[in-house]
Specification:
By secondary structure, this protein is of the alpha/beta class. Helices cover 34% and strands 17% of the residues. The protein has one domain: Alpha/beta knot (3-Layer(aba) Sandwich), CATH 3.40.1280.10.
Length: 195
């Protein structure tokens, strides 16, 4: 038999081509209407800032506040890590966490701190699927006293390994995904779309 082997590009489990990738993302964008915001309360590491900016763009964060330096996104390491994605998010640079929280609440967002506190619950136990501003803190000190006083709830990502905490960029990515996951599965849980 002189059968030719199947071409690799006919394999059903190959990576999507650029057109397939655009179609996939468009399908998920159409299912995503919930309002999601982000407050970076003292995050300083350039790699963390760039990574968080990229995740914020990927998960369609509507508004984001950076408490800190007005030229943070000009840092070469931030720019390299973010790869230009910061332009897809409406960023405000403010000088205090109070200003960021006040503006978020005025815009209709409910501030939820991502922090290990005595009242914190697992991310999946909170309703995060709409009108939430996730508040993440400094790499070493966590959330400021202002954010601890003003957030309406606190959540954490449960961990079962030998490590007791996550990098702020990793915790932010998990939190953003959980907020969107809750929105995408709201009908399955009986909450209805956008509920």
């Amino acid at each position: 038999m002189n059968e030719r082997p199947a071409r690799a590009d006919k394999h059903p489990n190959k990576p999507l081509n650029p057109t397939g990738l655009k179609r996939l993302h468009r399908t998920w964008r159409r299912q995503t209407n919930g309002r999601l915001a982000l407050i970076l309360d003292g995050v300083q590491n350039p790699f963390n800032l760039g990574t968080i900016a990229r995740h914020a763009a990927a998960y369609k964060v509507e508004r984001a506040w950076l408490v800190g330096s007005p030229d943070a996104f000009e840092h070469p390491r931030v720019r390299k890590t973010a790869m230009g994605t910061e332009r897809f998010v409406n960023w405000s640079v403010v000088t205090t966490p109070d200003q960021a929280l006040r503006e978020a609440v005025e815009a209709g967002f409910r501030p939820v701190g991502i922090e290990l506190t005595p009242s914190a619950v697992p991310l999946f136990a909170l309703e995060l699927h709409t009108d939430v501003a996730l508040v993440v803190g400094h790499e070493e000190r966590g959330l400021s006293r202002t954010s601890l006083d003003r957030c309406v709830a606190f959540a954490f990502a449960p961990q079962v390994g030998k490590v007791g905490s996550l990098n702020v960029a990793a915790a932010t990515a998990i939190s953003l995904y959980e907020a969107r996951r809750q929105e995408w599965t709201a009908e399955e849980r009986g909450a209805g779309p956008g509920a």
